[in-house]
# Entry
Amino acid sequence: MPLPRLRLTPDVSHGPLDGAWWPRCDALELELPVLVGSLDPGIGTLTRVTVGTAAWPDAPQEVMTPGHVIEVVLTDSAAEAHAITVDCGTVGRWELLVIPPDESARVATRLLAAAAHPANPLSAPRLLALAESGLDGQDTWESEGGAGPR
# Structure
């Protein structure tokens, strides 16, 4: 399996996001096992993910990964439109920005860094809106409380 394009916030996140994921395609049943395989086993067993129907219109209700099945919850929430919530039972929950698979490498690299930055104050929709605006986003990101993606 190819390595996922994933970046997590080091230690504990204090913002709306815990990192970002850049899947290669919009087939959740293909991408989710790769994501799960890249997560630290110390976080526990991933039991459920919540994804937006806008980003994953054909997502199945369950995805088989090595050793277990993951429940997929679909939502129409605007806040979840470009995010995935990863639940690991009682161990924790992480909110990740989902970067569209067809995003350019340059923009995706910036989004991966910004979403995983411990001081990031921006939500997934806001980060993507900055990227889609065609602006650099650095000044806006910093004006909204971020220390600037590194």
